[in-house]
Amino acid sequence: MKGFDFDFLKITVTDVVDIVLVALLIYYVYTLIRNTLAVNLLVGMFIIAVFYWVVKMLHMELLTAIIEKFMSVGIIALIIIFQQEIRRFLLLIGKNAFLQKNKAWWGYLFGRKEIERNNLARIKPIIDACKTMKKTRTGALMVFVKFYDEQFFANSCEVVDAKISKRLLESIFQKNSPLHDGAVVISENKIKSASCILPLTDNDKLPSQFGLRHRAGIGVSETTDAVAVIISEETGEISYAKQGRVRMNVSFGELEKLLNKDF
Q1: Longest dimension (CA), the chain
Q2: What 3-state class would DSSP assign to 56?
Q3: What stretch of H or E contains 187?
Q4: Can you spell out the DSSP letters for 72-126?
Q5: Which of 129, 154, 234, 235 is deepest in the core (most CB within 10 A)?
Q6: Helix 61-72 crosses helix 37-57 at what angle (to 10 degrees)?
Q7: Whose CA is closest to 241, among 230, 252, 249?
Q8: Average model confidence (pLDDT) for the chain?
Q9: Strand order in the sheet with 227-231
């Protein structure tokens, strides 16, 4: 009597690495599409795939041929449909690359330790402005980007390119200011532009009290590596948007930590 052959159960180091990499890829894709319309699109594609399998098993030649023609351009359709998610995925990879992840160590090696220490001092005018605008219930939307994309922002913004200051931020968002209606974009420790018109999120699961500021802040965090600070005009509540997700009722201590980490 022959014994069972368990050779197929042998797992090598390469297999373990392969499984871990696939798991990480699935996790990153999940974090990118969670709470977005991409989930509904994937469900729709899954339903089409199941329907295709059923009609093929039932030998429905006409329907099978139609669905096969539709699926033959699947790769191109996926790129078009998920272009925002693909952009965010590539940004996520770049943001977590080795040199980017360990930039603090490189800063120390090249004499930038003092600059890192002064990061909180650079954030202080922003926190102080948020405190005043929260108290006066002045609506505001501030977007923080690591790399300023002139083509993305400048076309719909007024160029400012000024040093960050509490008084300037408060002046921009005053109700009588011609620049208050829109977002301020902050990058490279400067207020680069103001009155920016940003793409709104398509997420239909957001709370009903979210207005255009919140939807614009979430929308820009979905399509770029930016983070957004939103101050509600109705309640003065501060929200923080990153990668398409939003934290509500953020305290000033939390805001300082988040900006120190992301900005």
Answers
A1: 91
A2: helix
A3: strand 183-187
A4: HTHHHHHHHHTHHHHHHHHHHHHHTSHHHHTHHHHHHHTT-HHHHHTHHHHHHHH
A5: 129
A6: 140
A7: 230
A8: 78
A9: 158-163, 190-196, 183-187, 140-144, 227-231, 238-242, 245-247
Instruction: List, for residues 49-74, the tens digit of each pLDDT value.
Output: 888 888 888 888 888 888 887 777 76
Helix 119-136 and helix 252-262: axis angle, to 10°? 140
pLDDT, residue 8, reads 55
C-alpha separations of 57 from 60, 145, 181 in Å: 8, 51, 57
Question: What does the alpha-carbon distance between residue 39 and residue 32 come to, in Å, rounded to a whole number?
Answer: 10
For residues 64 and 45, give the distance between their C-alpha atoms in angstroms, rounded to a whole number: 15
Separation of alpha carbons 225 and 93, rounded Å: 11
Task: Give the model's pLDDT for residue 149.
Answer: 72
pLDDT tens for 191-233 read 999 988 888 887 777 877 788 889 999 888 887 778 999 999 8
Q: Does position 77 have pLDDT exceeding 80, yes or no?
A: no
* Residue 95: both structure tokens together: 């943001």
Please say whether the beta carbons of 183 and 217 come within 8 A.
Answer: yes
pTM, 2 dp: 0.62
How many Å apart are CA 38 and CA 160, to the nearest integer? 35
Residues 231 and 130 sit within 8 Å (Cβ to Cβ): yes
